[in-house]
Specification:
Blueprint lengths: L5 H32 L1 H9 L4 H11 L5 E5 L4 E3 L2 E3 L4 E5 H4 L34 H18 L4 E2 L5 E2 L8 E3 L2 E2 L3
Amino acid sequence: MTRLDNEEIAGFASLLGGAGAETVTKLVGNAVVLFHRNPDEYRKVVADANKVPGAVEEILRYYPPSQYQGRFSVQDSIYSGVTVPAGHPTILVTGSATRDERFYENPDTFDVDRTPSLALGLGYGIHSCLGAALARMESRIAIEELAKRWPTFEVDEAGCTRVKMSNVAGYGNVPVHRAS
């Protein structure tokens, strides 16, 4: 059995902490913009806190903060008539997969009442994010508090700044003010 040394453990903990902070903050920022653009969906969340977990899953589907995951194939595989050889780098483009019209009905519609399905926003199966449960909990709490404290708001979209990262989609700044 191979064990991790202290440096590897510290590095892994830093990776988890950093990745979790990036994805959750971008998920919450994406939520604020999505709710601003879809006020009827936000009103549902404000009216019924039980809709928050579904809203988190829909935000992860509609606008996932993690846009891709890279892997290496472990065996020769054929996808859409193309052979991917063993050991070949592959990539799952989450931002595209979560809008696949073959899997999601009306994929370009943001709907907090969407029936739960395969959630890819934080990975899946053995490639699921180790912090997925924590990220979902933190996001639920943030959205619950947003709904309690800001039942109406407006986003100054001209003031929004997007992050400039290849694998993270979201905002570094989302200016909001109470709706008049």
